[in-house]
Design goal:
Number of strands: 6
Number of domains: 1
Radius of gyration: 16 Å
Strand content: 15-25%
Order of helices and strands: EHEHEHEHEE
Structural class: alpha/beta
Oligomer: single chain
Distance between the termini: 17 Å
CATH topology: Rossmann fold
CATH superfamily: NAD(P)-binding Rossmann-like Domain
CATH class: Alpha Beta
């Protein structure tokens, strides 16, 4: 039984490496993907890559730590697909690979960078779940939320 077929799946951080894997899984199983990411350059590259799937996918630039942007994103989703079924909270801050003396190593990691991580990974996930959850009652409480 394919639980993704014909479902509208929202993927935050969808333009990242793991997000692209989620997109492929959703589309290959007959679902519709809503790709949310803050990086417009990456979104534009993905639009080209998934051009043949344009009936089953939309891309929305959104900072998920901004509640008003997430509300506007919900409107775009509902205008296009009339519903949403699954939320995959996948967004995170995209840091460059670690190198010697890199500022992102724990001993060099700034409090401001940590706060940015919290805003995206924790607060952003909460905002998305809170706003998107009002559509239907959740049937599973995890970082991947399913809505009836």
């Amino acid at each position: 039984m394919n639980k993704i077929k014909d479902k509208v799946v929202v993927i935050t951080g969808g333009a990242g490496l793991l997000g692209i894997q989620h997109i492929n899984a959703v589309l290959s199983n007959g679902g519709k993907a809503v790709v949310i990411d803050i990086n417009l350059k990456k979104i534009n590259l993905l639009k080209k890559k998934f051009k043949s799937e344009s009936n089953n996918i939309i891309f929305v630039r959104c900072d998920i730590s901004n509640e008003n942007m997430v509300k506007k994103t919900l409107s775009k989703i509902l205008n296009r697909f009339r519903r949403l079924d699954i939320l995959i909270n996948n967004a995170s801050v995209d840091y460059p690979p670690l190198k010697k003396n890199n500022k992102y190593k724990l001993e060099n990691f700034s409090i401001n960078d940590f706060k940015k991580d919290i805003d995206v990974s924790l607060i952003g996930s909460l905002i998305c779940t809170k706003i998107f959850e009002h559509i239907n009652e959740p049937i599973n409480e995890t970082s991947i939320s399913f809505f009836n």
